[in-house]
Specification:
The protein is an alpha/beta fold. Helices cover about 30% and strands about 15% of the residues. A six-stranded parallel sheet has the order 7-8-6-9-10-11, with helices on one face. A six-stranded mixed sheet has the order 15-16-20-17-18-19, with helices on both faces. It has a five-stranded parallel sheet with strand order 3-2-1-4-5. It is globular and about 65 Å long.
Length: about 650
């Protein structure tokens, strides 16, 4: 959602937005003064990157708002410094200068005359490209969006990528979608229905590197060759969330963290629905934000954000930002540098003002350090399970959850929470605070906390077989998530862990594994790091190359009264499509075991090597059958 300009002195943006037809051909004569000015600054070739006083880019007259007034749709609507409407170039005056009759007369900050959009130079910013005047109709006579020259390329054709393509198409962009892997049939149908051009199985540079902007799936690393090529050519790269934010003024409740963000996001959404609010669920869970903005808009969105999505967000603003915690994760994507990962998480605070809210866990040492260093602009709502006066969310000695907002104090007995465990107490306090700030009434908050039943694949009880409990925690794709799971189980454990390592330090859970684990099953293509970390430290370890094999091995190790816990610590995409696929296969194999049948993994389980996956698609987050994005960690792990 954009921050709109607060003053009317930034007339160059208005001119750029309204005078697209005045571009002069390259051979247009220029005066000596103009020639002297050329080459000293970076030309602005369009309005795409025009920024006003560090505000968000202005993409069209429709995006431009003056002092929170209605959009400026034509020169007639434009007023400068409370003057009369600007009906033509003749009426336009800049900073008390003489009237501007043509581009030739336009001077910015005492610079040389501007003869065309190619000569327009603003604050040394980078070039961008022309868009049609906003006065053009939204649709042509055949009912389709008006097409224009600006081109958006979408890399990755999963939930977020296709959502971004649909939104760009509805706004009249020339859209092209490229996916190195095979596009799922439902997404292919969405593209075909709208006539959006796409390719699968490869990236064609000629079709991609002529883009004005690229929307990149969070699963594609910046090191991917096609991304590097785009960066070298100066093509802006943004996320689906950034694109969607340009076209909605909805309230944005944004949640991130290394752990707990999915539960907190789902619980916040559940409470707001209980309150009868018009709310959508988006980001790492739910439907694509861009698709909802295009076809099913809401007044409010609750958005789970990964660090990879935050990396490519620039002008988007969270009205309510929630940061649950920061612990080591995804260091393989950040060059092994923890601070780069921390900085990515803190991007959730960018563009916030005092009118916005920042909710965070006060006892996280990294967050304490970063908050003290950055002094967030937003109003802060720290929370903890302690009872200290500086906390806005706290737990009292008598077991009352207290949440303080400008509306007063909300008190809820901890015993009323449907979810158990200290980590879920944090999730509940954060969600209730966010929901209250978003407008939910207190009765709905209480009811939501009492009725929420948890998140699939997160400490999900599956079945009891031969007096052994089986728990699906496939969403635990990092060390801290696994630690929470181990803490929550009070019986001896057979732990299934492994997958694609993300720079994990297994020493952080070694003591707990030693104390609780009867055995470990390493489920992955390459388990050498796990063997090095745990061999000789627990009674038994073994390898498995499929979920069926892992369940069979775990069942042999377990004793009556034990718990078999799938809490992998790792991303899933060496053997599975995503963490959801991994969790579904776990449940299927457990139910088969309960029915006395031989457990069989899904076709191809165990046959997909990491190299094969990378060849398929390092950029699309593989989509689950449920239509959620994927866990290319990124996308859906508690990151």
């Amino acid at each position: 959602m954009y921050n709109h300009p607060s003053s009317l002195i930034h007339t160059p943006g208005y001119i750029a937005a309204g005078l697209q037809t005045l571009v002069l051909p390259p051979d247009t004569p220029r005066t000596a003064s103009a020639k002297r000015a050329e080459g000293k600054q970076v030309p602005v070739c369009s309005i795409d990157y025009l920024r006003l006083s560090k505000q968000a880019p202005v993409y069209s007259m429709n995006d431009l708002r003056l002092n929170r007034h209605a959009p400026v749709c034509s020169m007639n609507d434009l007023r400068l410094n409370k003057q009369a409407p600007v009906c033509s170039m003749n009426d336009l005056r800049l900073n008390k200068q003489a009237p501007v009759y043509s581009m030739n007369d336009l001077r910015l900050n005492r610079q040389a005359p501007v003869y065309s959009m190619n000569d327009l130079r603003l604050n040394k910013q980078a070039p961008v490209c022309l868009r049609p005047a906003c006065g053009e109709p939204d649709g042509s006579q055949d009912g389709l969006p008006t097409r224009h020259a600006s081109r958006i390329v979408v890399l990755g054709a999963g939930e977020s990528g296709v959502g971004a393509a649909v939104l760009a198409w509805t706004k009249g962009y020339d859209v092209f979608v490229s996916d190195c892997g095979t596009i799922a049939e439902k997404y292919k149908a969405m593209l075909l229905d709208r006539g959006i051009r796409f390719e699968e199985g490869h990236h064609t540079e000629a079709q991609i590197l002529n883009a004005d902007e690229i929307v990149k799936s969070p699963g594609i690393p910046d090191t991917a060759p096609i991304v590097r090529a785009a960066v070298e050519r100066g093509i802006p790269i943004l996320s689906e969330i950034e694109l969607a934010g340009r076209y909605t003024d909805a309230q944005m409740v944004c949640i991130t963290g290394s752990n707990g963000k999915t539960t907190t996001t789902s619980l916040t959404y559940h409470i707001l629905r209980e309150a009868g609010m018009d709310v959508g669920l988006a980001g790492n869970i739910g439907r694509s934000l861009a698709l909802q903005v295009a076809e099913d808009p809401h007044a409010c969105y609750v958005i789970e954000l990964s660090s990879f999505q935050l990396d490519n967000m620039y002008s988007f603003k969270a009205d309510i930002a929630v940061l649950m915690n920061i612990t080591p994760d995804h260091l393989n994507r950040y060059g092994g540098e923890m601070q780069r990962y921390v900085d990515a998480k803190l991007r959730i605070l960018q563009n916030q003002t005092r009118a916005d809210a920042f909710i965070y866990w006060a006892d996280d040492p990294i967050l304490r350090r970063e908050v003290a260093k950055h002094h967030p602009e937003a109003t802060c709502y720290p929370f903890s399970d302690a009872d200290r006066p500086e906390l806005k969310g706290r737990l009292t000695a008598d077991g009352q959850i207290c949440i303080e907002t400008p509306r007063g104090t909300l008190r809820i007995p901890r015993t009323a929470l449907a979810l158990r465990g200290t980590h879920n107490l944090y999730n509940a306090i954060a969600a209730a605070t966010a929901a209250r700030l978003a407008g939910a009434d207190d009765a709905s908050i209480r009811r939501g906390l009492e009725t929420f039943r948890g998140v699939e694949h997160r400490l999900e009880p599956v079945a009891r077989v031969a007096d052994v409990e089986y728990i699906n925690d496939s969403k635990a794709t990092n060390i801290d998530s696994c630690r929470y799971a181990l803490q929550s189980v009070e019986t001896p454990i057979v732990l299934i862990l492994g997958g694609t390592d993300k720079g994990n330090d297994y020493g952080e859970i070694e003591a707990m594994v030693r104390a609780k684990a009867r055995g470990l099953v390493f489920l992955g293509v390459d388990n050498r790091k796990l063997h090095a970390a745990f061999d000789g430290k627990v009674p038994a370890t073994c390898d498995a190359r499929s979920m069926a094999e892992a369940i069979a091995q775990a069942a042999r190790m377990a004793r009556p009264g034990d718990t078999v816990l799938l809490s992998p610590c790792c991303a899933s995409f060496d053997l599975f499509r995503n963490y959801e696929d991994r969790g579904e296969q776990f449940k299927q194999c457990v139910h088969a075991l309960a029915d006395g049948k031989e457990a069989r993994s899904a076709e191809g389980d165990g046959a997909r090597t990491l190299q094969a996956f990378r060849h398929e698609e390092g950029d699309v987050h593989p989509e689950s059958v449920s239509g959620r994005h994927s866990d290319l960690d990124h996308l859906h792990a508690p990151l």
